[in-house]
Design brief:
It is a single chain. It is built from two helices and five strands. With 68 residues, the chain is an alpha+beta fold. The chain has one domain (10-67). A five-stranded antiparallel sheet has the order 4-3-2-1-5, covered by helices on one side. It is globular. The model has no long low-confidence stretch (mean pLDDT 87).
């Protein structure tokens, strides 16, 4: 897998949400990825392949940064 993603990571998607932001927090990782909008709190689920296509970049790694 290209990008190592974990619960709590903040990502930026290519298209913005209806509320105007494109920042999301990952709340579930598995076959499907569950994302929560940082601005309005709306939650969505998408499969991992779709997520990898729509993700622009990872902003922060909460667990990895705390361990360093």
């Amino acid at each position: 897998m290209q990008n190592s993603i974990n619960i709590g990571d903040e990502v930026i998607m290519k298209k913005s949400h209806a509320c105007g932001t494109n920042k999301w927090v990952i709340t579930r990782v598995g076959v499907d990825i569950k994302l929560k909008c940082v601005n309005c709190g709306h939650e969505i689920m998408m499969d991992r392949l779709e997520f990898n296509k729509k993700m622009k970049k990872k902003v922060s790694e909460t667990d990895a940064e705390e361990k360093k």
